[in-house]
């Protein structure tokens, strides 16, 4: 340790997504390669001497206590813990975080010293991992509200790779074995006899950490929700969701010095007839066991919805991934004009 293969892999993974901005301190981390990166981990981040760095990933993260603040983080997985190296700007983003982050080094803002705060979640405290729809994100849950973090990878490959590495590391933990399970039939194992409703698919790891994957009913619930938002189309016997992807909506601001743009996280859902943008709560659902009341907002809130037949053209940028798409819709005052004309002309 570290092997050449590991050093090559974490060097390749140590790249900040080009569309997201980070502080100088995290840019410094992203500039480290190979052995220098491993030495940086051991001298600045690792909590015990004999832990090994196994995986590195750059991702946007959300905390349960601050569900509206998405922040960029360098996620480091070791044989003892998961470390989230965060932007120092995150501390100032929300005034309600004073009890969450104990910030003492407030006098170094104007110096050449750049501060990063590191959030640590020990593997022994890990209870469950919820994987989001189509592996676009995953939520890590510990024993309290302070220990719930969602990683918005927006990439099924990154999600899958991290989950595989996490399972491998958890296998090394020495935990007391669970009691022998009583033999159960299929229905009592996966369903509730009272409601007849199938539960989400759970995989209980040998370390007793639950890995929870969404089942088909989540897509059905989402399709039902989308159908409710579609005026006059709720009577459709079947509504197919063709695409679900976590994206950003670009808000362009024309400033005096230079034109700037901000990225607003959105969930894009495409059906056979409509294109929707939702504001989704990625951190509060499913409810943690200790939650006393439901979250203040719904899981999905409609931000915008347009009919595909009103789509005039799609403009594609020439930059590399992530690709920018501009959807141009016809500005029709009466949305149902075409539909009514058709019905009147052709009768029933």
Automatic annotation (TrEMBL):
Question: Where along the sequence do coiled-coil regions lie?
Answer: none
PLEKHM2 PH domain location, by residue?
Answer: 114-178
A GO-annotated cellular component? endosome membrane
Residues making up the signal peptide according to the UniProt record: none
**GO MF assignments:** kinesin binding
Localisation per UniProt entry: Cytoplasm
Which ranges carry the Nischarin C-terminal PH domain?
Answer: 241-347
Q: Which InterPro entries match?
A: PH_domain-containing_M2, PH_NISCH_C, PH_PLEKHM2
Does Ribonucleoprotein show up as a keyword for this record? no
Query: Would you kindly state one Gene Ontology biological process term found in this protein's UniProt entry?
Result: regulation of protein localization
Going by the UniProt record, its keywords in alphabetical order are: Cytoplasm
One Pfam family linked to the record? PH_NISCH_C
Q: Which PANTHER family match?
A: PLECKSTRIN HOMOLOGY DOMAIN-CONTAINING FAMILY M MEMBER 2
Protein name, per record: NISCH protein
Organism the protein comes from: Urocynchramus pylzowi
Write the gene name: Nisch_1
């Amino acid at each position: 340790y570290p092997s050449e293969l590991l050093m090559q892999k974490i060097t390749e993974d140590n790249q900040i997504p080009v569309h997201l901005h980070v502080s100088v301190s995290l840019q410094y981390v992203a500039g480290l390669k190979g052995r220098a990166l491993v030495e940086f981990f051991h001298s600045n981040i690792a909590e015990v001497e004999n832990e090994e760095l196994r995986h590195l990933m750059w991702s946007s993260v959300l905390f349960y206590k601050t569900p509206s603040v998405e922040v960029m983080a360098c996620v480091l997985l070791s044989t003892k813990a998961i470390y989230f190296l965060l932007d120092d700007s995150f501390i100032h983003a929300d005034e309600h975080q004073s009890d969450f982050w104990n910030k003492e080094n407030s006098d170094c803002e104007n110096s050449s010293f750049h501060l990063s705060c590191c959030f640590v979640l020990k593997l022994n405290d890990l209870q469950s991992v919820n994987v989001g729809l189509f592996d676009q994100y995953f939520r890590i849950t510990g024993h309290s509200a302070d220990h719930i973090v969602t990683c918005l990878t927006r990439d099924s490959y990154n999600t899958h790779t991290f989950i595989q590495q996490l399972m491998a590391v958890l296998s090394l933990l020495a935990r007391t074995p669970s009691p022998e399970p009583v033999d159960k039939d299929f229905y009592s194992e996966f369903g509730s006899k009272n409601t007849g409703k199938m539960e989400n698919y759970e995989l209980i790891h040998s370390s007793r950490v639950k890995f929870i994957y969404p089942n088909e009913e989540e897509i059905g619930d989402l399709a039902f929700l989308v159908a409710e938002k579609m005026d006059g189309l709720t009577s459709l016997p079947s509504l197919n969701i063709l695409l679900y992807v976590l994206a950003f909506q670009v808000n362009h601001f024309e400033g005096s010095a230079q034109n700037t743009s901000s990225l607003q996280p959105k969930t894009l859902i495409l059906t056979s007839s409509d294109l929707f943008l939702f504001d989704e709560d990625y951190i509060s659902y499913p409810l943690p066991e200790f939650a006393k009341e439901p979250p203040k907002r719904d899981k999905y809130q409609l931000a915008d919805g347009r009919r595909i037949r009103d789509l005039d053209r799609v403009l594609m940028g020439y930059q590399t991934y992530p690709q920018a798409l501009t959807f141009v819709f016809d500005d029709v005052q009466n949305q149902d004009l075409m539909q009514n004309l058709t019905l009147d002309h052709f009768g029933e």
